[in-house]
């Protein structure tokens, strides 16, 4: 048995969920409170299967609906069917007494809709297999959870800050560097590459013009309105702006041509933000997310339930981080999500296999190939695995998504793919603001993430435990409804999300989610999920 150690590097999403820690505002945004619960890494997995799929497209015939065979080696012990069912109830107990055989059968049917977490090598549960499970009951009774109230019910999303002319160089920081230590991105896009100084103005203008803009805040807001159906999701009315940081009348000192500090301005106030070169050289510089979160605390409006800041710069949390994609402090109701690292331009460099992004990530051949890297011998598919793979919401999602031409090639399609990634992480981080911890029950939008590859494998839906929490917050606490209203909310939310997905048809994640929702609806209709 091998011992799995952290090889900390690329942080993706992390929050201090279980304890709902607060982000304390600091005067000087210095080495403040920084909740490093665990280091995450996403070191070298997936090479084998990427090679194979480029030779012959995978048909995803058999699905991995339970944890991968690697989970046991990682020491992950998934809550069993009885615990999962009990975790969705207010009392923490199962509503009906069911025999083991009945539960076993029910769990198999359930896995066609809600598969288990994959737990592949280098996934977050690989490094943190004993992470606490937060049931609906423990969420409900969490002392420090902020309730949504009629006076404090708005989820604000702030658009990417504008760049003031005086810090015009910061525009260059959002572009992938061709000469970065990570190597040139080579997916054929090449439109965000920096233009050499010797190139003439016209060429520069064309490059600027063709540059793929990071996704629009209105689209992120639109998705969150569907995802948090019933909550008030609005764009933050103030425009944020990057400006220089000046101390005692002097501009901040520079380090490798990168100022040590810049400032984030909102209204007539500004917060100092640390800057540093991106350690892996993929971007020229990155910004400290704790400082950005200090600004978020300062701008939280009175009627806000929470605020999410979008930035298109690379961000980091602690000195030893390479980067961090998103972060929430649930207790303080603040979150930040970056778009820079999610650009499809970096997919090849980061080893993200489009053909096995969610929902295709639940393909057994793919999971086996990744486990094989760690000497786990794949087991042949069982009769039951083959049977369960043929129908159900996960199969419907895979059929719908794999029918799309892949990977996307037009700027428009790539930008939509980019949006879907940011939107999903935004919904995850806001989940922390609602008091939700990381989910260990199922593959779920609230799962923790060990890196960009795992991020691409995770679903955009909420599992039954997490959906129960959001349903309670919206239908019962905010709208003061009862159990029946909570059930209706699940249906209404499904419809809202379905509408969103139809509008964005052609985007893999949302095409899959649409088919998944439709198939789930049918199952709910025949009560197959109520076991
Ligand atoms: Zn998280
Ligand atoms: Zn969940």
From TrEMBL:
User: Matching InterPro entries, A to Z?
Assistant: MetalloPept_cat_dom_sf (IPR024079), Pept_M54_archaemetzincn (IPR012962)
Its Gene Ontology molecular function terms? metal ion binding; metallopeptidase activity
Q: Which cofactor does it need?
A: Zn(2+)
What domain of life is recorded for the organism?
A: Eukaryota
Example GO BP: proteolysis
Q: Which UniProt keywords apply?
A: Hydrolase, Metal-binding, Metalloprotease, Protease, Zinc
Protein name according to UniProt: Uncharacterized protein
Q: What is the source species?
A: Trematosphaeria pertusa
Q: What is the lineage of its organism?
A: Eukaryota, Fungi, Dikarya, Ascomycota, Pezizomycotina
